[in-house]
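2024-03-11 09:14:02 DEBUG pipeline.ingest accepted 1 chain
2024-03-11 09:14:02 DEBUG pipeline.ingest length=180
2024-03-11 09:14:03 DEBUG pipeline.predict start
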Amino acid sequence: DHLQSERDREIALVEQFSFELPQLGLHLKADETAMKIIRAQLYIEHVLSGIVGDALIDPSAVDLNKLGFGTKLGLAIGLGILPKTLRPVVVRINDLRNEMSHSLIFSMPEMEKDRLWHLLPNELREATLDQEVQTTPEKVTLSRIFISLVIFMDVCRQRAAAFRIDRKYAAINLGRIIDK
């Protein structure tokens, strides 16, 4: 059916990452800790902007660049696209980025990685562990925490966009059924 193939095409478009996945890994693995934090926060904000922009009926009505990080996060959670359990870890990463930007010499204590780990929701912690090499929480790298978080957030964005498409086609199909 033509409608089904149109729906499938639209779903396929939104189920792509909003960034290049190999590049994400390179950006968040290669640099010193300070750069990892900066880049993680940039990727997170990119995904938050995508979530909010996708949810707007008229995206031209809002300049997303003028919305602050906290506002975008609040909207993403308030719209039900991101779980509220992500707020503490996302806020902490943004706080770390802000602390870094006001310090000539930034050194993140090892306990901060543990703090970020414990701020992740349980299901994301479990998914972040590398099952193939039996990774323990103590051995999970900061890069892996950031990559898992960014990918999870973008998958939430993708699923919300796919839901909106499904809802649109459900309304079209309902009209066709009623008219039979």
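2024-03-11 09:14:41 DEBUG pipeline.report The mean pLDDT is 88.
2024-03-11 09:14:41 DEBUG pipeline.predict end
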